[in-house]
Amino acid sequence: MWDDLSVPTDSARLHAVFDLAMRIGEGLLTNGAAASEVTATVLRVTSSSGLRNVSVQVTFNEVTISYLADESATPFTRVRSAGERTQDFARLAAFEDISHQYLSGELPLDEARHRAAAIPQRQPLYRLVLVVAGFAVMGGAAALSFGAGSLVVVAATLAAGLLIAAAELLARWSIPPFYSQALGGLVAVAAAIGVSAIDPTENSSIVVVSCLIVQLAGLSSISAVQDAVTGWYITAAGRMLETLMLTVGIVVGVRAGLLAAEAIGADISVTASMPLSITTALVVLISGLGMGLGYGVGTQTPPRLLLMAALVAAGSGLVSHLIAGTLHDRTVAVGVAAFLTGLVATALADRVRAPSLAFVMAGVIPLVPGSRIYRGLLGLQDDLSVGISELLEAAQIAIAIAAGVVLGQLISSRIMPYFRRSGIAYTPAISSPFTTMRRRRLSLGTRSMRRRRGTAVIEPSTMTGEMTALSPALFEDADLLDDLEPPADLVDRDRGERRDEDEEVP
């Protein structure tokens, strides 16, 4: 069986396959996909093109692909640097659509390359005015979730829109995001001071908390933790450092604003709370819908996915509110809500053929510990120990969010092959860099399961250096998968290598 598979040695075709794989890999990495997903997708493209012995390396801003035809051949390697990272889920969905259609044989190689090359030149799905308006609505909805009055909601809406517009302007001037984050924190505190001056009885601090949620929603902490727990440490370290620096930028801006507020005697301390009740649960549900819709528009989520993203956000916020109100433990509440978000988002994304990241990021917005961070910054002015304690609590919640989401994604990606109707997974399962044949069977399913189901789930990626060369013909006849096993000598060699690897592990 393996000998019958054609392995392209033609130089022009090899360059074409690599060009497609690298464009897709760069597009996924640029738009926030985790390193495991980028690697798996690239390997699926090369594998389905008939290439074996393919190695993929993904770092924070670079994709490297190497191909070795045989032991006597010269390795063929290409490196492509990723562009500036953005949150554009429409482009992310377009790249995933191309890879899926190419794997299924619906899209020829040349057409797939043409479409992949055209995606970065596309006009944004929503104009800048709509993007600013979307994040503004998100800020107002976040304020509503804390029980804010009409004045505070309006102020939070305007402040969120202003800080996003300022960030876009600074980005066009090629000013690093650190400074736009700092400016955003300063704008948030200035808006809170304005509310306090208009009506001192209003809880103006909610404006700052809402703006913090808007600024923190775009950070890559989820992907960073996913990369870390799945073994992609270099990319994880880069993303964590980026998240840390952007968070420090927010802290600098907010601290500067707080010093100014203290100098003029403005009271913007945190006093609001949302006790558990039917009314507050309804408010949290409505605010979750608003945050999900606003974030979806702000991140270029396709219109057909907006409502689903909003529902995921609303459900996540409601679950967190109910558990926190019952157990009085915010960390546990957000951890459970994040786990359910990852579980639902992965299954929903595969069902509707959409990037799971769009649903995941929308779902974690109501869980962002904006109030904890703000309390910590306030505490640093009065009592250093109290401030540090609050910031550590915020860090704990952030870790619970990221770890819960990733766990939900991992479990869902392992369960989905047993229920998926289509033959090819839309998004490859989250996996570690070194995956055995046993892990491959987790994606494909056992032979008995495939016979019982009548159709196969095709996942042409073993996440190893030696790739199974899957031709497009395999997608037409699921019964051929029963023969998709390496020769006995390769199996024995693989077992020997595995034993050696196991013996080296202490």
Helix-strand makeup class: mainly alpha
How far apart lie the N and C ends? 38 Å
Rg, alpha carbons: 24 Å
pLDDT averaged over residues: 78
Q: In DSSP terms, counting alpha (H) and pi (I) runs of 4 or more, how many helices?
A: 19
What overall geometry do the principal axes of the alpha carbons give?
A: elongated
Uncertain runs with pLDDT below 50, 5 residues or more? 1-9, 434-506
Beta-strand content estimate: under 5%
Structural account:
With 506 residues, the chain is mainly α. It has two domains: 2-121, no CATH class; 128-416, no CATH class. It contains 19 helices and three strands. It has a three-stranded antiparallel sheet with strand order 1-2-3, with helices on one face. Strand 2 and strand 3 form a beta hairpin. Helix 8 packs across helix 15, helix 9 packs across helix 16 (384-415) and helix 13 packs parallel to helix 16 (384-415). 51% of the residues are buried. Residues 1-9 and 434-506 have low confidence and may be disordered.
What attributes does this structure have?
mainly alpha; 3-stranded antiparallel β-sheet; 3 strands; 3% strand; elongated
How do the strands and helices of this protein lay out in sequence?
Layout: H1 11-30, H2 35-48, E1 54-58, E2 62-67, E3 76-81, H3 89-103, H4 109-118, H5 128-145, H6 150-172, H7 177-198, H8 205-216, H9 221-229, H10 233-264, H11 278-298, H12 303-327, H13 330-352, H14 356-364, H15 370-382, H16 384-415, H17 437-444, H18 447-453, H19 488-504
Antiparallel strand pairs: 1-2, 2-3
Helix pairs in contact: 1-2, 1-4, 2-3, 3-4, 5-6, 5-8, 5-11, 6-7, 6-8, 7-8, 7-10, 8-15, 9-10, 9-16, 11-12, 12-13, 12-14, 13-14, 13-16, 15-16
